[in-house]
Amino acid sequence: MNMQKSKTKQEIDWTLTLAPLILIIFMSVILLAYPDASSNAIEFLRSIFVGDFGSFYIVFGLGVFLVSIWLAFSRFGQVKLGDLEKPRFNTFAWGAMIFTSTMAADILYWSLIEWAYYFGATPFGMENLSLAQRQDFASTYPLFHWGPIPWSFYILPAVAYGYMMYVKKRKRQTLSEACRSTIGHHADGALGKFIDIFSIVGLLAGTATTFSLATPLLSLVVSTIFGIPQSTALTIIILGVIALVYTIAVTLGLKGISKLANLCVIIFLALIAIFLFFGPTRFMIESGITGIGKLANDFFSMATWMDPLRVSGEGGSGFPQDWTVFYWAYWIAWFVATPFFIGKISEGRTIKQTILGGFTCGLLGTFTSFIVFGNFGLFHQTQGNVDAAGMLADGASPSEVILQIFQQLPISGVALVLLAVAMIAFYASTFDAITLVVAEYSLKKLEPGQEPPKSIRVFWALIFIILPIALIFNETTLTMLQTISIVAAFPLAIIMGIIIFSFIKDLINDSKTV
C-alpha cells in the first residue's frame, strides 16, 4: 500500500498542480485587498483587448467554425477515434454529457435574461426600431451567441484531443502535448509548462466568471423559496454545496458523471415542459422558428460585424465588443478542459460523427433553452407585463429581473424549486467533467482507462471555488467579469490555433503512411 502511494506521488506533476493554485490565490488576494485598483486595471485591459484586438476574436471564431465544417466533410472525417467496434457511450448518454459538461448552468441563466439586454440595443447601428424588429433581434442574437461558432471552440479541439488520446495514444493529456507536432521537444520544456500553467489559470478565470454570474441568482431563488435573508454568506454556502455535489460526483469517475448528466437532462426537460404548458406556447415556438431563420439569413453579417462607427462616435453602439467578443472569449476560456472531456467520451466515433453529432446535441439543447425560456420572458416584455429591459437599464440586478419573469408563471413556486435543483445539478455536472480533466493535467503519465487519484480530483474541485468567492466579495460588475474572460482568452486562442494546426498536420502526415 505504501508503495502504491509512493508511485502515485511520483506520477504527480507538482509544477502544474501547485503553480496555478499559487497564482489564483495571488489574484484573489489582490482583488480583495485592492478592489478599486483592480477595477481600474481591468478597465485598462478591456480598452486594449476589446478596443484594439476585438477583431481578432471575431475573425478567429469564424475561422474555427469553417475549419470544423470542412474537416467533417473532408476525407479525414472517416478517421475513427480509437479501436472500439462501437462508441463507448450510447447516443443519448453521449449527447447528454456533451450538453451538461459545457456551461449548462450558464445556458440556463442566460436563456432567462440575455434577450433583455438586446431588446433595447441597436444591432447593426439601426435606430428607432419597431417593436417587431426589437423582438426579432432579441430572440435571434442569443441563438447566435450560443450557436455554431462558439460550439466549434469545443467540438474542433475535442476531435483533436480524441485523436491525440486514441489514435496517437499519447500518455499526457495536456494542451502542450496537443501542440507537440508544432512545437516539438519544447512541449517537454519551459514552453510546454508555460502553456499548461497559463491554460489552467485561464480556465479558472473563465469558470470564476460562470460562478460569479449565476450563483447570485441561485442565492436569490433559495432566499425567496425558504424566506432566508439574501447575503454574501448565503451565496458562499451555496457555492460550497455545489462544490460538495460535484466533488462527490467526480470521485465516482465517468460512470457517476454520466448518471448525473442523464439526471440533469430529465430536470431540464421538466422545466421546459412547465414553461411550454403554462406559457405562451405558440409565441415561443413561432419566435424560435423566426429566430433560427433570421440567424441562417444573417449569419455571416452577424459573424463579421465590428461596428466601426463606434471609433468615431458617430452612431456606433459597441454592441459586438460588449457581447460577441465577450462570448467568443468566454467559450475560448473553457476550451482548456471541456473539449478534453468531449474527446474522452467520443472514443469509437469517427471525426465526422463527433463533429456533426457534437454540433447537433449541443445546439439542440442550447436552442431549446433559449427558445423556450428566452421567448417566455420576451413575450411578457412585449405585452407590458414585465419591463425586464427597463429594469436592467435602471440598475436592477439580473437575478431580480429573472425572479419577476418567473412570477408570471401560475406555479412560480414549483418552477423556482425546479430552477434551483436544475442549476445545482447543471453546475455539478459541468464542473465534475472539467475537474476530472484538469486533475489529469496533474499526472505525468496517464494509461488508457486510468483516472486520476481521488485526492487529486478533490484538490482541483476545491480550487475551482477560490476565485469566485473573491469575485463575489469584490462585488465584481458584469463588465469586469467580461473583461477577465476576454483577457484570459487572448493567448488561449493562440494556443487553440496551434493545437488545430498540429492536429491537421498529424492527420495529413499519418494519412501518407497508411
From TrEMBL:
Keyword Transmembrane: yes
Entry's Gene Ontology cellular component terms: plasma membrane
Pfam family, one: BCCT
Main location: membrane
Compartment list: Cell membrane
GO molecular function, one term: transmembrane transporter activity
Membrane topology: Multi-pass membrane protein
Protein name: BCCT family transporter
